[in-house]
Records
---
Amino acid sequence: MKQHYLLVISLIILAVSVYTFYVTRKSVDILKNKSTKTEDNRPTITILILLILVAILVIPWLYTSTFLGENYKGEDGTGQIGDTIGGITSPFLNGLSIVLVYLALKAQIDANKQVQQQFEKQEIESRFFELVKLHRENVGEIGIGNDFGKKIFVMLIREFRLIHKLVIDVAFEQGIVLSKNQEFQISYNVLFFGIGENSSRQLKQSLSKFDNENIFFEKLEIVLNNEIIKEKEKQKEKRVFKYIPFRGHQSRLGHYYRHLYQTVTFIDKQKISIEQKYDFVKILRAQLTTHEQALLFINSQTSMGKKWYLSKNENLLKTYKMVKNIPLDFFDKNTEIDLTKYFDNGYFEYQTY
């Protein structure tokens, strides 16, 4: 009979231990998730405390009274009862202590991970904003003549459009059929390298894939030189440009695009969510004027800008919408290029209105 009651009491103690473990684990989860709903857990904790108090008061009384029909006092009084209770509860309490220590250590490890992640995030932010600062400084240092900064890109687009027109004319005259994309590639190469003692050699090499016999290049070089002569002969107030065009902008654009690419790829390689990456690059994109974004797109279509395409299906300009602010009809679809063929519907800002 005694064994039967002891078994019942042991089960009660086991149930209280399991319940204690459950409540403790739930409390740890709440702390881990930084829940603000701590008041929801108060009734459960109150019940647990009451159960423990009841167990402390009732179990000794059950052993020492005749309520259960038998008295468990031995010859030495209640000493055996204490030994019995200690023997029954010790395994459960020791096991519970181990579990609580494990949960405390796990919570500490998770907290350390959160601290480390926060520290890494701060490092990313610090490095990124340093790169953005350098980008702005680079733009401010880009100059042609007495002009510096973002207005330079307006001039570059204007020069590009003139080159593009001359490329189309020379190709038509030579009977060479070029796609609109190829026309843009050739025009950008001319803008980038220009013509001159050293520049012409680089330009010739860059156009070799379009012109194996160099006939197109030689004719284009003649036309560009004639345009330079015409520009020089004009009175200063009647000139299209404040500078002599077609001399190349390699020294200006080379460093600009290398740094811009480095800044985007720095964020792209971080182990953070795509949403966080996009938010970072969006800050960088906000620094770019319409003409900067337009020239960036042109650059990405050339061999010099091929790195913007990480793979066949991964394009940094698409992923981070680097040129989404180019307005509708900035480029003439008939005579220049149709941007909607290069990006999905809804990519551009004007498509979301």
Note: The first helix runs from residue 2 to 32.
---
Amino acid sequence: MRERGSALIVVLWGIVILSLLGLSLIHYVEGEMLLMKRMVGDSKSKISAVFALCRIVDQIRKHQKIADEDPDLKIEEEDRKININALLGPQHLILQNFLENHGIEESQAREIVGHLIDWKDADQVTFLPPHQAEESFKNAPLDHLEELLLIPGMNLEIYQKVKQDLTIFPKQGPLRIRMETASPEILLAWAESLTGPSSNTSVMDAKSLVEKIIAHRENGPIEAQEMSLIPEEEIIFRLMLSSRARISSLVSVEIEKSDSFSGWTTKVNAVVDHRTGAVYSQTSLDLL
């Protein structure tokens, strides 16, 4: 009896061990299947997003009308934004004013802009000594908007506030902003940068001008003679014309595609010159 009992215990322990091994194998297989499901879903969403992006870019190049009812598609003018690569000299006041209008302290906004100048320019002279050694900066235009997070004084909170109204394209050429589509915040920062003793105008003149531009641009072309400007407003408006984009040349295309099987989502975007068809940027695939 004792031998039979011992044998039974051995058998039971064997069953337990085999059960544990079986459960481990089941969990391993489930994990592998889940991983495979994610990999397949990831690949399918990426392929779908890239294919859709290529199709839209091709339509832009052929100047074809693009249907805007697609919920996965977002198209907007890129030249409604402030091109931080194109800012030169006093034009950096546009960015400083824009930051201040978003609640950033004047000293911090000035610091960010000063370090941005050092980041972009090719010389070895610091704009705001002695905060940072010039050798630690890139000394070249920004290749990605996220580079702003490397600028001393900039942080994620500020970046999240302003990134939708900033661009780095095109990397070369003069500053051009579309009055017709720029946000009120950009228009105000732009107009305010041109006020002061040199133009004999005030910030209040800039604010009243921007109000008239916003009120008028929904009904017709933005021209001085159509807006009943006072002399100070007209001076600012005339100065703004040197950086005005009469027509949109750049569009930002963003596509988001999901795989229904895995729930995996991929977002891709590109900046396209719809006059020449050149694609200035196609981002790496971002997994959401």
Note: The longest strand covers residues 250-258.
---
Amino acid sequence: MTEINAGLQSGEAQAVLGFRDSVNPNDNWVANMCATHWLVVTRAYNMPRRRLGLSCFVEGTGFAFLKECVEPEGWTAHSITEDFEFSANTILKGKRITHTLRAKFYDEQPTEFDAWLAQLYRWMFGAKKNVHFAGKALANLFPHPVQKMDLFWNATAPLVSGLATLATTAVFICALISQTPLIPGTDWAFNWILGAGAVIGSYLTMFLMAFLSVVYCGKPIRQYIKGMLTYPFFILAASLLVVISLFYKEYRYKPLIHKGGKSS
């Protein structure tokens, strides 16, 4: 709280987010994967934004803000992903959210596969609902156009990524079934090599992102190896779930049961 308060008093931003660490990364591979995800969010998303002078996006807990962020209407974020909604409204008001590694707080990660999947689906369903903030960002582009374009990217990225993954997979499958070469002048069998290269390249990119995040957060590589290896599947699952959410209008909330994770 002292570090969060120091960030607010510095005048750098009107909201400050702390460093989300995990209390139970060693419980099993699900917890390790989720713990790795939050390290990636810290090092690959929040810290670069802070250094570029952009706004971070709060993560549901571990943050504080000045009253001016919710004036004059008060707290209006009531969606299932109210953290993103609050972040978007704050940015649209011309306010800034920053991040500090010194304010560390601990969060318990799910250990059951179905609980993780339900949580991820809730996030992706909320991401679909929050796409409208992309339009608001463009409609209110000035002042702070770079901040608003970053909001536009964050509001659309999950859905665009999900649809792109689905479309790319469909194209490859159709090309293989019809024996049609994707690149003119090549044999259709080359599609297999092209597809394998795309899958391996995507996997290695996500793995490298997770690896560097673990390293730069000062975590032991051996402790997070399961999370680094499975992190690409975390991203793939998110991409598929956001597409699935398009076929449902309503979401039934399923509370995530916390078991008091072992300190790791």
Note: The chain has one domain: 2-245.
---
Amino acid sequence: MLEAIGFDFDDTITKSQNMNWILFAREILKKFGDRFPNPPRNKVEFEQLEREVARKIVELRQRIKTAKTMDVLKEYGVSASLAEIQSVVHDYGTSIDEYYARLTSSSYVKGFKKFLEQLVRIKELRARQGKRLVLFIASGADLPNLEAALYNLGIRNHFDIVRGNEKNKTEIMREVMVSHNITPDNMLFFGDQAVDHEAAKETGCRYIGLKPRVPGQDHSTEEFRRVETILEHYDTVGKKIKRIDRSFGTELRDGVLANRTLRKRSRPKLMA
């Protein structure tokens, strides 16, 4: 029986990861743009360079923001003092605080809200049966920002455990397993980055990956669709919910969620 379902936050629940990197790149350019080899001369050039720098930030995969800023500047041959770099990190922190505080229901990944509503109904049904479904979030975001965003979206009360970057995702998943006595086979995690998949593999839990976006491009993550087509492969609780049209389904290939049209009565194949 599937007893726990977890989610990353940025680009899994909301379309926010892209803006994280864009805002970071924006603060770097506001401070150091005139020192770049080809400084942007107008708004169009600034936005083009902003997207390019955002991609660099993603590629570097450095977690510490001060070090990440240093590495980006080194890529462009820009020198800066530690005080200047710390100023950029501070201003980025302020910008991202304001961004998370403004998140609304229009920020959801397409299909997530309905998916969560169905999970909540299953959770309530299980509670009446003396069973459980633990919902949790394991994110790389700062916890205060994450909590503020969830309260602003009106969904904080649906999650039993919310953890940010005070722990890595492997540690968070293990915490959920230990605190609720859940085995890896009975946990499912949704994410969009390699770090999410790696954490799932390390803990042995099930994983569904959503396609990550490239900074500066439109959101391309796959939709959350038809919770029953996922849950019925783990237990029978989903079958108590009104039967859902089988004209659309999901299939898992190598940990990546792909959408496809299914023949009537056909079922998705699940892989760990």
Note: The first strand starts at residue 4 and ends at 7.
